[in-house]
Each structure stands twice: as structure tokens, then as C-alpha cells.
Design brief:
The structure is a single chain. The chain has eight helices and eight strands, in the order E-E-H-H-H-E-H-H-E-H-E-H-E-E-E-H. With 253 residues, the protein is an alpha/beta fold. Strand 1 and strand 2 form a beta hairpin. The chain starts with a strand and ends in an 18-residue tail after the last helix.
Length: 253
């Protein structure tokens, strides 16, 4: 499907302009009945990056100074009931439950943040602190905010029990999303109003694909989260009945 460059005696790739606009693998070509060697090697690199994102443990100690610098109080570190990564991957139910909520402060804050490793520790390591920085800046001083909680071997619903124990009005979970072959470091934000154990996914709102410069930018994600937060507080609930009515088109980069 290649075309000859006029007067140049060489082939041009007609897919190149399109490939520059997307992270998807398009127009890879072929070598006989297979992919070209370069495409195969690139695919193997992406597979390795996705596996690493899932299996590498989150470096919590490296994360804590940045979270402490936000001025929300000393970060709290917890784990889920999944004792190790293998158990976490085999038993999603255990990742939804904190190992313990004993001793958590209960000051009835308006908002709380839970940072969970999820299925991409790389996403959390790279994006959690700058995303939290943007969220705190967007919130301003109008709402009370709890100290951040970091949870390892965690699924989204782990924040329900934490939010209830801390008396949070609304909890936002920053979590590493399932890696793909194009992106291994995508972060998601899940908002749940009036968190209690037993909330289902229809009672949450999600902002996904946060991984600048290719994905959603921190500022755009923070503005959307703030709109949803105020909407949830006004409506008295989150989930399918809550829409982002800001009219803003998220910007990438």
C-alpha cells in the first residue's frame, strides 16, 4: 500500500500523517503473513510495560512527601484485605475492603481523597501528586478536606468503608487504571457522595484517561471533578443521576 515518492526513488508511508494523531496501532504493514519485526518488538515492549504497571508494587515512601506538602495533614497509609499482589489479582473482593479502619480520624470533613494503586502503580507514581495538587488548588478554601489516605492492593470500593469511618461527605479515589497496549500509566478519579459500604458503580462518577501530555490534563480533570463534587452536594447523591453540566470540553496536553 506504499506509494513511490516522485523523483525520489523511495517509498513513502501514507499512514504516517494519521499515525501521528493517535496512540492506536494503525497501518503497521506486514512481512509475508506476519507483522514487520519492528512492529512485533514494539508490541512486546508495550506488553512488558503493561505487565510491569500491574505487578510492580507502589513506592509509597516516595509518594508521601509530595502528599504531605499539600497542606492537608499527614498522609495515612492503609492496605486492603488482599495481603499481596497475587491475592489482589485473584480476589477483587478483598481489594475492595480495607484491612482495618480502626484509628482513622473522624472529623466529618466535606471531602476526602483516597489514593489507590489499583492496576497501575506507574500511573499513581507519576500522576497522583500533580493531580492532587491541581485538585486542592481547584477546591480552594470553601470546603473542609481530610488528610489524604493511601491504600495499597486496593480497588475503588475500598474508599467506601474509609469514607464512612472518617465521616466524609464525598470521597474521591485516585486510582491506577487497567493498562493497555497504548497507555500503561493512565489515572482515573472516581467520585462517591455519602460513601458507605455497599455502594455500586452506578452510584459513582468517573473521570478517566488522565495522563498528560497525551491524555487528559490535570487542570481539566480537576475542573471536571470540582463540577461533579458541587453537583453531588447539591443533588445529594452521585452516579447516573449526576452529570457534568459545565459545558467545558476537556483539554489534553
Amino acid at each position: 500500500m506504499s506509494t513511490v515518492a516522485a523523483g525520489a526513488g523511495r517509498y513513502l508511508d501514507p499512514w504516517a500523517p494519521l499515525r501521528a494523531t493517535t496512540q492506536a496501532r494503525i497501518g503497521l504493514g506486514r512481512a509475508g503473513m506476519s507483522l514487520p519485526t519492528a512492529a512485533v518488538l514494539d508490541l512486546q515492549v508495550s506488553l512488558a510495560a503493561a505487565r510491569d504497571a500491574v505487578h510492580l508494587p507502589l513506592d509509597v515512601d516516595a509518594l508521601l512527601p509530595g502528599l504531605a506538602g499539600l497542606g492537608l495533614g499527614e498522609p495515612i497509609v492503609l492496605s486492603s484485605q488482599a495481603g499481596d499482589r497475587g491475592t489482589y489479582l485473584r480476589r477483587p473482593d478483598l481489594g475492595r475492603l480495607p484491612a482495618s479502619v480502626d484509628g482513622l480520624p473522624d472529623d466529618g470533613w466535606d471531602v476526602g481523597f483516597v489514593i489507590a494503586d489499583g492496576l497501575s502503580s506507574k500511573a499513581v507514581a507519576e500522576h497522583a501528586v500533580p493531580m492532587m495538587t491541581a485538585l486542592v488548588a481547584a477546591l480552594g478554601n470553601g470546603l473542609s478536606v481530610a488528610p489524604p489516605v493511601v491504600v495499597t492492593q486496593a480497588r475503588i470500593a475500598v474508599a467506601d468503608a474509609i469514607g464512612e469511618a472518617m465521616g466524609l461527605g464525598t470521597v474521591l479515589v485516585l486510582i491506577g487504571e487497567r493498562p493497555g497496549l497504548s497507555v500503561a500509566d493512565s489515572l482515573g478519579i472516581y467520585l462517591t457522595h455519602a460513601p458507605v459500604p455497599g455502594r455500586n458503580d452506578a452510584e459513582r462518577n468517573c473521570i478517566s484517561n488522565i495522563h498528560p501530555p497525551e491524555g487528559l490534563a490535570y487542570g481539566a480533570a480537576a475542573r471536571t471533578a470540582l463540577n461533579l463534587l458541587h453537583g453531588a452536594r447539591a443533588l445529594g447523591r452521585s452516579g447516573v443521576d449526576l452529570k457534568d453540566t459545565s459545558g467545558q470540553i476537556p483539554q489534553v496536553g
